[in-house]
Amino acid sequence: MTKQHENLIGGEWVAGNAYTKNISPSNLSDVIGEYAQADAAQLDAAVQAARAAFPAWSTGGIQARHDALDKIGTEILARREELGRLLAREEGKTLADGIGEAVRAGNIFKFFAGECLRLAGETLPSVRPGIGVEVTREPVGVVGIITPWNFPIAIPAWKVAPALAYGNCVVLKPADLVPGCSWAIAEIISRSGIPAGVFNLVMGRGSVVGERLINHPGIDAISFTGSQSVGARVAQACAQNLKKVQLEMGGKNPQVVLDDADLKQAVEICVQSAFFQTGQRCTASSRLIVTDGIYTKFIEAMKERMAALKVDDALKAGTDIGPVSSQSQLEQDMSYIEIGQSEGATLVIGGDRLKRETEGFYMAPALFTDTTAAMRINREEIFGPVASVIRVKDYEAALAAANDTTFGLSAGIATTSLKHAAHFKRHCQSGMVMVNLPTAGVDYHVPFGGRKGSSYGPREQGRYAQEFFTTVKTAYTLA
Ligand SMILES: NC(=O)C1=CN([C@@H]2O[C@H](COP(=O)(O)OP(=O)(O)OC[C@H]3O[C@@H](n4cnc5c(N)ncnc54)[C@H](OP(=O)(O)O)[C@@H]3O)[C@@H](O)[C@H]2O)C=CC1
Ligand SMILES: O=C(O)CCC(=O)C(=O)O
To answer: Which of 50, 295, 337, 428 could form a disulfide with 169 if both were Cys (CB 3.0 to 4.6 A apart)?
Structure first.
């Protein structure tokens, strides 16, 4: 019988009234497990448990907090192969990428274990004589965390770890498509020494569990990663209920390739940015902006490199690109292939549905040329292995094209010109910028986030995470 996985509420494993099957997108007959769907009463109980745990946890010793987070990180790192395999199985990224993501999650818990001991304040003189001023940071309260399917262990980790490190209690709702990694983290947390109720897991649909979480009066703040449309809804609910909110959303990230780029390096960067992890990264580049002088050579080299990519079962040795994560995402990707063609773009390679030994959502990475900035394929986030090339005259036109988007998460430039690299770093309108590196694939100890329609609220990750997960207090004392 398939193993059933329960929700973690107030330190207890609580059965669901209903369960969803977690199915591998590489092999639709591979059922990873059944995962409980929380109902309204369970969500309420989780929030209540978190509220009850908050006074002691938020004022308790930082050594205990540090030790628990460190222990969680150690266990994730020790189980990297097993967790990476679970991740690859449920989400469809390759085993190497799954293991890499598990390592990232372990390192994130370790990093925030250290942060428990480093939360500093300030003392300043008052403008009034005989008064001292202290500025300190306190936890926000009970934080609701809502995560997407594409980074099933790293994103829960980079929200949960700082939340706990800075003394908050948590109610986590992971994506219904990939509950396995969040459940595994919850199980590790449940044995870490963290008191009951401090961390709660409620799995289920966004329209049910997520919706109730964002509107719940017992929740003080929401940290969300996902699509722009759901993000806007989350922001509205939070504004209406005066909750603190942090949103990380999509991207339409540009990758500029200049005439003076190292061609081989530029092609590798573009292939990695656009197609690795099946293009299902908010930092993926789906607009390749290429200047005239290198254009023809670049397209030829891209076609050659793309033809050699192996699309297959995520767990198979030698696979470069796994399946698309779900039927609905595959339909969305395929619909953009049709949209691009109907807009007049040329599909130079890929875009076909592929058959493999196992039945899964396989698709050949696709490249469009002859595209214009106004086309929907250059304006809307596809979130799959589909990229388009925009041909431009020179660096100035490339920069203008790069910034011609309502998104602003990551941007890249391939060039050997120090002058253009420095100018691009300063003038691209994005939260992250990469020089001769893929737009995707970031460090875990520095800020992550974007501008324009990509992000809303304070940055995530690194020390900057304290902006969202703490609230500032200014104290005046008469000497
Ligand atoms: N900038 C960033 O850091 C990142 C952005 N993304 C973006 O996420 C998208 C893909 O992820 P995807 O999971 O499909 O995104 P969605 O926005 O569909 O879902 C994100 C999360 O929100 C939940 N949700 C859905 N509806 C509601 C609601 N009404 N109220 C509260 N929660 C809700 C989902 O639940 P469920 O699905 O379980 O029903 C899921 O847990 C892409 O657009 C991508 O760019 C992804 C990763 C990182
Ligand atoms: O590029 C990365 O390493 C992180 C990307 C990410 O968080 C995402 O796509 O959801």
So the answer is: 50
